[in-house]
Design a protein that fits this description.
single chain, 5-stranded antiparallel beta sheet, 91 strands
Length: 1243
């Protein structure tokens, strides 16, 4: 059937739109199709424009545009310069038009050459050598070809229809004879075949998400494609090798592309632009915008596109219908329904006129329409068989037969001869009919007898499958799944199911409507049932779960049927009783309505089916069930065979050829989140390997952090709104905190205080609240505390534990970089000018510098910790910089949304930029963390020991440390425990357990009555013990280790007045008493189980000691504190008693602490108040176990030393003779056991 173009385009009006004073010349041009913004009052609204181009291919601003006075949406366009023809795909009508005489406006014509296509994602490609037009149809799931130089719209052939689901992009190379296409299926891939659809080959099957468009560069034999979800323009050679990303454009909506000479042209309807990009460098040459218009299709109308001096073998072949170019020749093909004659040129009808179409029945006839009548109105029905009383029918597409029922029995006939044959007589009223094409059995229901019966088509054997049913009707058989479904009931209707032999009968779901429901249908791709209930289209799983109401249905709907991605239903219109067929496109659980087809001449339709031999496969495809047994990627290589492949970061598991595994990286790597691919990768800085963190499902990862002590990756999910973790050894995933459920936020970035294990993070409001963001901390035991609230868009966060500082960024309305103490106090916005999107932060702990990235200015900047000496380090134009990490060897690493790699900056006099891990399969890289053995932040000693004696949170601050409690809890008067807690102590003098409030005597700095407590600084004056009031009013303390002697709760502390003789005497007495007592306690031992153990004070849970400590820990030496630092030799050591453990301080540490003896003692010595200025000093060992910590695994090769020793090494404070808990070790046989006894605690 031919549609009259004049009736559709009768009001064509072509005008010249000049952006300059000159008019665009006819001849070579870049043609871009547009959809106008209908909300705009801008007139006129153009459909496509011709941009005059320079010799290089760069378009100028001289354009000539065409518009129509009707809604015409051209989404695709290709050109034949030699024939002066454009082919345009129009979306609303789903028609491909041929525009002849394109360069001659006066005599242009538009001819429809193919109708009934899929819709928005149809793509077209043109073989200018053999003059054939190819197209993809994602709804029908095939690739077709048509010879457009004919009035016969049926002169098309389906080339590719097996092992293809949702083909999108399509490209041709007529010279090499290649056809390329993209298939967005369960396994997204790029394939190649000959132009006839033979010799198929999968080129790329990983690292793709939505490759909507593809084009072939004939000059270089490279293919280029866009991936909208990845925001990328990519390329590879014709065999799939040499893949690379040309450019990534963040926040773009890429739709179509074209290539010419050294340029790639890409349309971006989302931003109303199209880009001209150098295909070699990725540099954007120009970005053009036509106001109030959205660009879609792009093609180059130029003689250089069509190579000269190429032999046209089709002109020599003289095929009667379709000629296909080959690399060295041509072959003839026939349109659908015809086969090639023995002469290889002519075609003859293939066993009848019908081969693919929509079949319907009424009470007297069977009729068929072109298959495209499913999606486009205007197709006529051809009735080919007159039979009275047809109520139901089924199709045997393999044998080309029709099985139908009327009131007297079941019959069958052929599409080719139309002779009706009797199959079996029936006694009841047939209320449903179904066909099992695998064993050629016909099932039917009888509403009045309550039976389901079967008859074999080959053996004419019949039997009753089920009986005594409640008015069964509308039976559906699934031959592959070996199941059948039917509707039963008279007022309360339900769907029931059983196996094909009638066993395992069960109720699937109930209907809401009290009227008789329409038939049910099955979608093989989603394995779901569809049915109409109470004027709604509903769907559910085969077991009845997940019932979804997805669309309204017309009243009087009588049947429903699914063909590929189309859902068809027919209903009667009152009072005419004429039937209308309405079609929907199935996209997940959404339906998109197409134009209804009304067949007025046929009257009331009783049943409908689609005749297509490919809808009755002998079995499932090799990848259809259980992903073909493949863990990740399954690629069908035929009807039976398949191959398994792995994603980036995984390799085929040696123990399982179908499985995939990754190898964790333990040292010297970058950790990065890939938002596009929902992956987290470890990027080895030693081997350049990319290893994926092996987690079943990561959804929209935001920030990532690596806890090297526990070998755990922490990440956030903006989709799940959760903080999660996984151990890289065991791949055990854990939920740490649900930010969405608790605070309606999603977590963004993370930082870890390795001294306490606390996780600091930023969170962003889900409802767009301008003050719903915050910074919070999460302990390993799951306790949570908000530190800073009412933030707008907080993102990056870094910690400086040894200085008690925290830095973060906020890219809200007034972007800034903030700084505060780690407890959230004393916060300031110390960088608040010249920043727009501060996305990343990194600290240089050696030189005390802060680095940051700005995604708007695309600058890497740096300053001192007080904001001075601000400098621009590096500029990366168009990069959209994200996160940054620092390596103390003098390197910076950063991610950028528009860069398919990690950039490494070598910080020298001349900044060098190196691209690392450049891989086209990587998506948009967001957050970045770095782990190097010698690159960890220096710890704060005050919180390293026993959690600073804090019951919940210990926060290093700028002049000490503070204790704090989780949300909705408050600190007790003692300044260390929380009001909701009591602590159990074990007396060091006896084994009696005494429960009491945990009260600490902690040294503080004396403050003036007028001095603000927030600005209290440590001085060299003698520390005084605080009164109870002092402790209550101040939670900032300097020493975490000295416990208050237990006793009567009413016992008052002895105040010491600085400067008085009595106070000095008391101070000396207390210091001496404490020192002697602690030494005696440490020497007191007792026998238990044949091993020596000492008594030590500990406020935490019992944790098993670490085994296999090196024998060198027996070294006994001690560092010296002196009044005069000049008299002490570097690392001068003295002997110490057996029960004391030495510490040695480096020269660098002495230099940092010189001139401040009290601070030196405070930082380096947990019991500094008991030490006097003398040549020989000793430390008692009282470090406890960090609250809530568990014994970490001990790898056989001891990849990492225990946590405490490692922290001390980072701080350049070597420790000998200790285990990880700070306890003295003693060799017992082949093991080293801690000489301490764990003390119980209530919490």
């Amino acid at each position: 059937m031919r549609i009259d173009a004049s009736s559709i385009l009768s009001c064509l009006l072509v005008i010249a739109f000049k952006m300059k004073s000159t008019t665009a010349e006819s001849g070579p041009a870049l043609v871009v199709t547009y959809i106008p913004d209908r909300s705009s009052l801008q007139i006129p609204k153009y459909s496509y424009c011709r941009f005059q181009i320079l010799e290089s291919g760069v378009p100028t601003t001289t354009i000539r545009c065409t518009y129509f006075d009707i809604s015409v949406y051209f989404l695709g366009v290709v050109a034949d310069y030699q024939s002066d023809v454009l082919f345009l795909y129009e979306n609303i009508r789903s028609i491909i038009y041929m525009e002849t005489n394109h360069s001659q406006e006066a005599i242009r014509t538009w001819i429809p050459i193919q109708e009934g296509l899929a819709g928005m994602h149809t793509r077209i490609a043109y073989d200018w050598l053999s003059k054939n037009l190819y197209w993809t149809d994602i709804t029908y799931g095939w690739i077709g070809v048509i010879s457009p130089r004919t009035d016969d719209q049926r002169r098309y052939r389906i080339l590719v229809h097996e092992n293809i689901q949702r083909p999108h992009g399509i490209a041709l190379d007529p010279i090499q004879g290649f056809l390329f296409w993209t298939d967005i299926d369960q396994t997204v891939r790029i394939e190649r075949s000959s132009l006839s659809g033979d010799d198929r080959r999968v080129l790329i099957s990983s690292g793709l998400i939505t490759p909507y468009s593809i084009v072939a560069d004939i000059r270089t034999q490279n293919m280029f494609w866009i991936d909208d979800e990845k925001d990328t323009i990519e390329s590879a050679q014709y065999d799939g090798t040499g893949r690379k990303i040309i450019k990534r454009i963040a926040h773009a909506g890429l739709f179509h592309l074209e290539v010419f000479k050294e340029l790639v042209y890409v349309s971006d309807p989302t931003n109303k632009q199209f880009y001209v990009i150098n295909k070699n460098t990725g540099e954007t040459q120009i970005a053009l915008t036509l106001p109030y218009h959205y660009p879609y299709g792009i093609t180059m109308y130029h003689p250089d596109v069509q190579a000269a001096n190429i032999t046209d073998y089709c002109r020599l072949r003289q095929c009667s219908q379709i000629c296909i170019s080959k690399k060295a020749g041509a072959m003839c093909m026939c349109k659908e329904g015809f086969i090639l004659s023995p002469d290889g040129k002519n075609c003859s009808e293939d066993s009848g006129p019908f081969h693919r179409g929509l079949v319907v029945s009424n009470s007297t006839s069977l009729c068929i329409a072109d298959i495209h009548a499913i999606s486009t109105s205007g197709f006529n029905l051809t009735c080919f068989l007159l039979v009275a009383g047809i109520t139901h029918f089924e199709l045997d597409t393999i044998r080309r037969e029709i099985i139908f029922a009327n009131n007297s029995g079941l019959y069958y006939t052929s599409f080719d001869q139309f002779t009706v044959q009797n199959l079996i007589a029936v006694s009841g009223n047939v209320s449903g009919l179904a066909f099992d094409w695998k064993d050629r059995s016909i099932y039917w229901t009888e509403v009045n007898t309550g039976k389901i019966l079967l008859v074999s088509r080959d053996r004419s054997i019949s039997l009753t499958i089920l009986s005594s049913l409640a008015s069964p009707r509308n039976i559906l058989v699934l031959p592959i799944e070996r199941l059948m479904f039917w509707v039963s009931g008279s007022h309360l209707y339900k769907i029931e199911s059983s196996k094909l032999d009638g066993t395992d009968r069960r109720v699937v779901t109930y209907f809401s409507a009290t009227t008789s429901p329409a038939s049910i249908s099955f979608d093989p791709s989603s394995q779901r049932l569809y049915f109409v209930d109470d004027s709604y289209i509903k769907t559910c799983n085969l077991n009845g779960s997940d019932v979804q109401k997805i669309s309204t249905a017309p009243s009087n709907t009588e049947s429903i049927y699914i063909y590929k991605a189309y859902l068809l239903l027919h209903y009667r219109s009152w009072p005419s009783l004429s039937s209308t067929i309405k079609s929907f496109v199935i996209e997940g659980l959404n339906l998109t309505e197409k134009s209804p087809s009304q067949f007025t001449s046929i009257g009331s339709i009783t049943d409908m089916k689609v005749f297509d031999e490919r809808v009755q496969p002998s079995g499932k495809g090799p990848c259809d069930e259980m992903n073909g047994g493949c863990e990740q990627i399954c690629i069908a290589t035929g009807l039976v065979n398949r191959v398994c492949r792995c994603q980036l970061g995984f390799k085929t598991d040696p123990a399982n050829a179908n499985g995939c595994s990754s190898s964790p990286v333990y040292n010297n790597f970058l950790l990065v989140s890939d938002w596009t691919n929902d992956m987290i990768y470890q990027l080895s800085l030693e081997t350049n390997d990319v290893q994926a963190v092996d987690v079943k499902k990561i959804k929209d990862p935001t920030g990532v952090a690596y806890d090297y002590i526990r070998k755990t990756v922490i990440w956030g999910s903006s989709n799940l709104q959760q903080i999660l973790s996984v151990n890289i050894n065991a791949s055990i995933e854990m939920l740490l905190f649900p930010t969405g459920d608790r605070y309606n936020t999603f977590p963004d970035r993370f930082a870890i205080d390795f001294a306490t294990g606390n996780i600091f993070y930023t969170a962003v409001s889900l409802n767009g609240s301008a003050s719903g963001g915050y910074i919070a901390v999460l302990s390993l035991s799951g306790r949570h505390k908000k530190l800073i609230t009412e933030l707008e868009q907080p993102r990056a966060i870094v910690l400086y534990p040894s200085k008690g500082l925290m830095f973060w960024t906020d890219h809200g309305t007034y972007p800034y970089i903030g700084k505060s103490a780690m407890n959230g106090q004393n916060k300031i916005a110390f960088i608040n000018t010249g920043v727009t999107w501060p996305n990343g932060l990194a600290l240089d702990y050696k030189n005390d510098r802060l680095y940051w990235t700005d995604g708007s200015t695309n600058r890497v900047e740096s300053c001192k910790l007080d904001g001075t000496e601000r400098t621009i380090v590096f500029v990366d134009s168009e990069a959209h910089l994200m996160d940054i990490a620092y390596d103390n060897a003098g390197y910076l690493y950063y991610t950028a949304w528009n860069r398919p790699y990690i950039t490494k900056l070598v910080l020298s006099q001349t900044i060098q930029a190196v691209h690392l891990f450049e891989n086209a399969e990587l998506g948009r890289l967001d957050d970045l963390d770095i782990y190097l053995l010698d690159n960890q932040p220096p710890p704060n000693i005050l919180c390293s020991y026993n959690n600073g004696n804090c019951s919940t949170f210990c926060f290093p601050t700028m002049d000490g440390r503070s204790c704090s409690c989780e949300d909705l809890d408050s600190i007790s008067a003692d300044g260390v425990t929380c009001s909701s807690e009591t602590t159990t102590y074990r007396s060091t003098a006896s084994s009696t357990t005494v429960k009491t409030k945990s009260t600490m005597v902690l040294p503080t700095t004396p403050s003036s009555p007028t001095q603000d407590s927030s600005t209290t600084k440590t001085t060299k004056t003698t520390a005084r013990l605080p009164t109870t009031e002092n402790v209550t009013s101040s939670t900032r303390v300097a020493d975490p280790l000295t416990p208050e002697p237990t006793g009567d709760n009413n016992q008052k502390l002895i105040p010491i007045v600085a400067g008085s003789a009595g106070g000095i005497v008391v101070l000396i007495a207390i210091v001496a008493t404490i020192f002697i007592t602690r030494c005696m306690i440490l020497r007191k031992t007792h026998k238990q189980g044949g091993r020596e153990q000492s008594m030590s004070w500990n406020r935490d849970i019992e944790i098993q000691p670490r085994r296999n400590e090196p024998s060198e820990v027996a070294d006994r030496s001690i560092s010296v504190v002196s009044d005069d630092y000049d008299t002490i030799q570097p690392n001068e050591v003295y002997s110490c008693p057996d029960y004391l453990t030495p510490r040695i301080y480096s020269d660098e540490f002495r230099e940092q602490t010189a001139g401040n003896e009290l601070e030196y003692n405070r930082v380096g010595n947990p019991d500094y108040e008991t030490l006097t200025k003398s040549k020989e000093l000793a430390y008692s060992q009282t470090a406890g176990v960090h609250k809530g910590r568990v014994n970490d695994y001990e790898s056989p090769d001891r990849r990492l030393e225990n946590e405490y020793t490692h922290l001390m090494k980072i701080a350049k404070l070597p420790v000998r003779g200790e285990n990880r808990f700070g306890e003295e070790t003693k060799s017992v046989g082949s093991e080293h056991m801690p000489m301490g006894q764990v003390v119980e605690q209530d919490s």
